[in-house]
Amino acid sequence: MSIDDLKSALPAYAKDIKLNLGSVTTTSQLTEQQLWGTVLSCALATKSGRVIAAVSAEAGDYLTAEAFEAAKGAAAIMAMNNIYYRATHLIGDETYATLPAKLRMSIIAKPGVDKIDFELWCLAVSAINGCGRCLESHEKVLRDGGLSRELIQEALRIAAVVNATAAVLESESALTAV
Known about the structure:
It is an enzyme of class 1 (oxidoreductase). By secondary structure, the protein is mainly alpha-helical. The chain is 76% helix and 0% strand.
């Protein structure tokens, strides 16, 4: 499976998603590692087996083994952090923000790839998982690290398109199973 297979599987009503999926994976200004790490970590965040299989097969052609693992690590750590930090934010009592999380997060300090790349992947996964506090935190680290708003926006577009691809394909699968 590949990105092209995903595009072919999208129904006619999702033509915009199909075109966007082609565009975000072929016209990126991100480095190859940033691009494919973002696509892979986002695919994992969708939890769609079909999207994960296709993206991981293609991402493997562009990412080193270390970068592939780091992208998986970004999706994993954000699956935990996005729930915790979104919840403490949504409760509305800022006291929770002052309490230590007491969650192990060592991969963020030592991800095995360039810190900016890992932060970009964490940001994109946080967009899918809907954690505003994590989005703010990772965006600040990226901007302080010299990444432009345009490149950050590109990662957000990738997250949106990969998520939409998974949503459409999973919905279609459910509809055809009825």
